[in-house]
Specification:
The complex is a heterodimer of chains A (113) and B (114). Chain A has strands at 5-7, 10-13, 19-24, 31-38, 42-50, 53-57, 64-68, 74-78, 87-94, 103-104, 108-112. Chain A is mostly beta strands. In chain A, strands 2, 4, 5, 6, 9, 10 and 11 form a seven-stranded mixed sheet that branches. In chain A, a hairpin with an 8-residue loop joins β9 (87-94) and β10 (103-104). In chain B, 35% of the residues are buried. Chain B contains no helices and eleven strands. By secondary structure, chain B is an all-beta fold. Classes of the chains: A mainly beta (113), B mainly beta (114). At the A-B interface, β5 and β10 of A face β5, β9 and β10 of B.
């Protein structure tokens, strides 16, 4: 158990819908990273927050947004969902922005029908 | 940006040694990581190299050559539980925003057979 929690574990929804994925980092970790993992693309970096501030964006679609709250938990919002958004979404945390030691949560498996 | 290549699949026998290679092209380099990921589970950290040479940690070792853009993960005394995907990841230099990005390869699926 990495200490990073993600909810829900599984999510099934329809195209066009909007969902929110939640992540709680390890106690004391200020950095939260979101990754998307699909079968053909591997782990793709989406976005990084440190202590409530956005630090970097990766291949994140405009339909996706995220935020980190004062209690350091983070939410990833996915809207206007498409079939191709079906993937595993991982949150990872680290104590500082260097990302030297990333601890991954168990992931949320999203299926868009 | 980063481009990371590793074999898609490998098969090895229980008790044997296997080497998983990773090559990368990068515009900035600040360390190379190996992660293990069992199917449907989260990646877990295995090793980190930032200087050239070999890092040994029990049955697992990782090697880095920065001049060649090359790393390998060596697994000794293979066990059935080592069947998993092994992800090579390269960390960028800080873009100036205080964020270091990890770019992952697509992973090598290792099957350990009796």
């Amino acid at each position: 158990d990495s200490g990073v929690t993600q909810t829900p574990k599984h999510l099934i929804t329809a195209t066009g819908q909007r969902v929110t994925l939640r992540c709680s980092p390890r106690s004391g970790d200020l950095s939260v990273y979101w990754y998307q993992q699909s079968l053909d693309q591997g782990l793709q970096f989406l976005i990084h927050y440190y202590n409530g501030e956005e630090r970097a964006k990766g291949n994140i679609l405009e339909r996706f947004s995220a935020q980190q709250f004062p209690d350091l938990h983070s939410e990833l919002n996915l809207s206007s969902l498409e079939l191709g958004d079906s993937a595993l979404y991982f949150c990872a945390s680290s104590v500082d922005p260097s990302g030297r030691s990333l601890y991954f949560g168990p992931g949320t498996r999203l299926l868009v029908l | 940006g980063q481009n990371i290549d590793q074999p898609t699949e490998m098969t090895a026998t229980e008790g044997a040694i296997v080497q998983i290679n990773c090559t990368y092209q990068t515009s900035g380099f600040n360390g190379l990581f190996w992660y293990q990921q069992h199917a449907g589970e989260a990646p877990t950290f295995l090793s980190y190299n930032v200087l050239d040479g070999l890092e040994e940690k029990g049955r697992f070792s990782s090697f880095l050559s920065r001049s060649k853009g090359y790393s390998y993960l060596l697994l000794k005394e293979l066990q059935m539980k080592d069947s998993a995907s092994y992800l090579c990841a390269v960390r960028d230099k800080d873009s100036g925003a205080g964020s270091y990005q990890l770019t992952f390869g697509k992973g090598t699926k290792l099957s350990v057979i009796p």
